[in-house]
Amino acid sequence: DKVQISYTFAANRVDLFRATAVVHKNPLPGDRPAAAMSNFIAPEIKKFVIWDYIVFAGLFLVCASIGVFFAIKERKKKTSKEFLVGGKQMSCGPIAFSLTSSFMSAVTVLGTPSEVYRYGASFVLFFLSYTFVIIFTSELFLPVFYRSDITSTYEYLELRFNKTVRLAATIIYILQTILYTGIVVYAPSLALNQELEDRSFSLTIQKTYPHLVNHLVFFGSTVTGFDLWGSVVATGVVCTFYCTMGGLKAVVWADAFQMVIMVLGFVAVLIRGTILNGGTTNIWEDAYEGSRLNIFDFDVDPLRRHTFWTIVIGGTFTWLGLYGVNQSTIQRCISCKSEKHAKMALYLNLLGLWIVLVCAVFSGLVMYAHYKNCDPWTADFISAPDQLMPYFVMDIFSSMPGVPGLFVACAFSGTLSTVAASINALATVTFEDLVRKIFPNLSDRTSTWTSKILCILYGVLCTSMAAAASLMGGVVQGAIGGFLTGITLAFWVGIGSFIYPAQPVKTIPLELSTLNCTLANSTALPTTAAPITAADRPLLADTWYSLSYLYFSTIGCLGCIISGLLISFVTGPSKGEDIRPVLIKPVCNFFCFWSERLKTLLWCGVRHDSQDEEFEKNLPAVITDKTGTEDTFKNNVNKENADQLPGYNPEEKSYTNMSRESRL
């Protein structure tokens, strides 16, 4: 039974590695050596003009205005429930937009087109992963969380296990989210700024960590002309402002606006790029000739970076951790006015995920068609692959002032939505799991102000972490929070793959050409990037450390499940009849063609047949147990008295009129 806490800890570890890779990126096999000098003359790319800055500033102004609007509109509603979960009156539309924009960060906007450009369009297979994740989340996880009427996902852990497990999960989540959010703020600012004066950082790392120098790539870019720390501070201040002023409603509606900006930015790039490269037919032909359309690779080798199986299986585990148990997701789902609206929001969000994915993948194909004979990465016109998309935008829109600003707004929309969701979720978890436990009798007014102060605190911490991200190597991120077996395994393989990248045969990029680049002072004409080979590789480097990064979450989850089963077996498993059915959604019940005998066997003793399948009917007994003793599931309570709890409506089978304090 201890297995059920596993997903809270281990399912989304790869998210941290993925974000870290944008800041301090491993030179993947096939990347240009760091010391390589360009033999080509880079074309002149214009920088931002005043209209671009105006368009970009408009994004921040609108988001801040949304916060002010909801602060004024909701000024008479001063409960923490209104501030943290919107009074549970949100509709499915804005929640769907909010979910999509929050999990399609600037890493997606900048990284996915570059991924397709260099490795091909197999990334589009993530549409299958997204589909499985949304189905599992809406049908398995959401019913338990929504019908339990909780605000923090970690409240479930106390109902299911005890306070210690809840506290441990809360602390891990807070630390991991602060760290990840800081990197999300820093990465796009770094990729888009003009010239990062970070050579001193390079020298410091070289002296302190000489073995890591070959694993760092610095974003010394001349892409847009953005000031690095100006954009970092602006992002942190604006997100903190509208989170604090308007609460969850401001976050959700700002996310919805940012989602529109993201799509508009992609559409502008696709239209302009398609026109310049001769239309859709020519782009498909160029992609086919360049082997960018080799999507279906059914190789079962787990060391291969992207195959059908790594994307569908590994991608599903990775994203299920982000959707199924993530506080940001569940908090917005339970803010919906009904469970039906929450499910509809998830399925509409799936449509949004598909749209953004298709836009990003096709942007990569358009970019390849544009640079198929003069790759700016191989020719050393840019300093990192993640700058390909900004470089491409500044190239094709050089004569159209204001449009580059729209794309940068598109990239930062992903950042703003992710950061705002994280700040709001951090404030909610801290208030519900820590502050309310210490001060259970806070008034509504005090609770609301406490929540706002927490938003400000976490806004400052996340922005400060962005500054710290510029001073740390990627390995440091793996040191926090790994005390369970699953996390240990996930971080072990993750850090190992960071230090010892897989051999070129497993992850080498597709061919890139510089045939039509203007030659400078060399008669040599390199047409492809030269692979990098690593020396003194340990035994595990070409096996365990070379696993596809998409399997990191899978390893973490399976590690938790296996270790949980073993520990439960040694210490003595809980009796199934002592576990309340309200806290478990049996997967086997979805298979209507299975026999009742088989289903009963797979319930592992939990009496799903003894109580109504509607979780609301079972909730009173759980709550009564919880108020009677900390040993929730061993206390024998007369269920007839449960229906007498104040606020419980037996006809509606809910606690709509019951205060949270009396419920817990």
UniProtKB/TrEMBL annotation:
It comes from the Eukaryota. One of its GO terms (biological process) is sodium ion transport. Signal peptide: none annotated. It is found in: Cell membrane. Pfam families: SSF (PF00474). GO terms for cellular component: extracellular exosome; plasma membrane. Residues 650-664 have a biased composition (Basic and acidic residues). GO terms for molecular function: lactate transmembrane transporter activity; symporter activity. The chain crosses the membrane at residues 53-72, 92-111, 123-146, 167-187, 216-243, 250-271, 306-325, 346-371, 406-429, 449-472, 479-500, 549-570. Keywords: Cell membrane, Ion transport, Membrane, Sodium, Sodium transport, Transmembrane, Transmembrane helix, Transport. Residues 639-664 are annotated as: Disordered. It is a multi-pass membrane protein. Belongs to the sodium:solute symporter (SSF) (TC 2.A.21) family. This is Sodium-coupled monocarboxylate transporter 2. The lineage of its organism: Eukaryota, Metazoa, Chordata, Craniata, Vertebrata.
